[in-house]
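Hi F.,

I've been meaning to write this up properly since the lab meeting, where we talked about keeping a consistent format for the predictions we share between groups. The idea is simple: the sequence comes first, exactly as it goes in, then the structure tokens exactly as they come out, then a line or two of notes. No screenshots and no reformatting. I'm using this chain as the first example so we have something concrete to point to.
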Amino acid sequence: MSNTNKLKIFNDPIYGFITIPNTLIYDLIQHPYFQRLRRITQMGLSYLVYPGANHTRFHHAIGAMHIMQKAVEVLRSKDVSISKEEENALYIAILLHDIGHGPFSHAMEHSIVEGVNHEEISLLFMNKLNEEFGGQLSLAIQVFKGEYHRKFMLQLISSQLDMDRMDYLKRDSFYSGVAEGNINSDRLIQMLNVMDDVLVMEEKGIYSIEKFLMARRLMYWQAYLHKTSLVAELTLTKALQRAKELLHEGVEIECSRPLKYFMEHKVSLENFSISDLDVFAQLDDFDIVSALKNWQHHGDFILSSLSKMIINRDLSKIKLNNEKFPKEVLTEMTIRFATANNITVAEAKYFIFKGKIKNQAYSKDAEPIRILKKDKSIEDVVEASDQLNLKALSKPVTKYFICYPKQLQEI
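Output, unedited:
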């Protein structure tokens, strides 16, 4: 048993001092699986747009745990019964909710491990840690999977008004400098309550929720779906796709051992073994950046060009539109680029492609945000609000984009 003082304090720029509640949480934070999050950027390649957005998943996980501590405190003050075991389960579940993120967070989801999302990998990590810690994470895993009988606990971890969103909006807004994304998390937490085992928000907090949903919508357009971030992330996935293609053709590709492992092996959720998980636990942003630095000097025109674009931030043009781009436009540009660079049309498609993005601040199909009215009735926030724009926020907005190299003339 280590004699280290395990009740340490983190100094966080958002909340000030954050205390580690107990020795188990300390040991989980100290585990190499969790320490890896220090090397995973929270906002992917958004730092190419907002230079301050270099904060990590480690920051976010610790912040989300801190907000959960505040939420437990508030709910207990309103006579919501939460046992010591349940409290600890909430802290562990929120602390580890993002532990399965791969390099550059969402930017490379499904690129390294195809068809497996980060929540599923988080659960694999949690199960492995549960073995190592003698079953002390069992209740947290039950809560995380939605199998625990107290429904509001899952809502604190994963819902449209969870502790995860409360931290990432405030944190991402702070580090990116996008002030429109800032929210009053203290006010939101103070208004939380539980009614019939369901998480509710007291009616007097409705304006804070409106601000929260508007902030989420603006953060998606201004930061998460910013067109430069988008084209950088798409270029990164194309570079990895090309590297995999060359590797399978027998071409030598220089990169770290963990990255090469996932490029050579197709791993699905069904065959995701403990050894696969241990290799995944060694993957972080540094593997990708190091690979790109090597690949920019590779003999393959496509791989080297795509890698240089990211390393030197010399990215393709991206145009957004409310309507789909005509197929002929894409075809004509692809042929022109292929001819100019002496490559095939199929190879030119690594540089010229289209797609779509969707922004929906609030979904009426998902678990609703419930407002507890003064007469003790419960209503969906969209119905309870007198703001017409809240109804508009629940409608998905889709935009279409096309990406093409700068050397091509403007469309």
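Notes:
The chain has a mean pLDDT of 93.
Strands lie at 9-12, 16-19, 192-195, 198-202, 317-321, 353-359, 370-372, 378-380, 397-404.

If this format works for you, I'll send the rest the same way.

G.
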